[in-house]
Amino acid sequence: MFVGHYAAALAAKAAEPRAPLWTYVAGAQLIDIGWSSLIIAGVEKVSLDPSLPGSALVLSHMPYTHSLPAVLIWALAAAFAGRWLLKLPWGAAWMLAAVVFSHWLLDLLVHRPDLELWFGGPKVGLGLWNLATPEQAVEIGLLGLAAMAWTASRKAAGRSAWPAALFFALLVAVQITAMLTPMGGGVVSMGVSALAVYLAVTVVAWLVDRGQRERRA
Fold this sequence. Notes:
Largest sheet: 2 strands, antiparallel
Shape: globular
Low-confidence stretches: none
Order of helices and strands: HHHEEHHHEEHHH
Structural class: mainly alpha
Number of strands: 4
Distance between the termini: 37 Å
Radius of gyration: 17 Å
């Protein structure tokens, strides 16, 4: 799961618009932002196996980001950070926590069994990665549905639909680029590239927010 995670961000923005888009976008990939950072630091472990169908990732050790207890901690931390650092209303802060937790649920759908149910416990994953075409269809489909929900909420509020359309198009372009670009180089290089993409998409979401604020002003 890659851009499919952003479906949760767009759906959350439609349901609870009081939080900035960029917070939901960062929240959707917060677990992988942490994972990329820990991969670069050598704390969590991953290898690449190009012979695998779908994703070539072999995720052997990631208890601090992708175990169920860790994700719950990340989600709670996001809620309290949203409330106390960003001064979000509690409803928006808890929606942000839900977006962070959605990352684990979506990973459960696509990952091979590599998600720990507790620290050092059994690993789960339904393995949709092994069916590359259906997995991509699920990602783009979820993203499209969430983009339509966000568009509908914007139009109901009398606002333009173009930010939702352009942001959706950007994410689809990112997904297609990732599909067509073979994974090469080392694990650290992959971690740096992934982290750069997550942060770049967050910056784009911040620019969308800023552009909307300036138009309202």
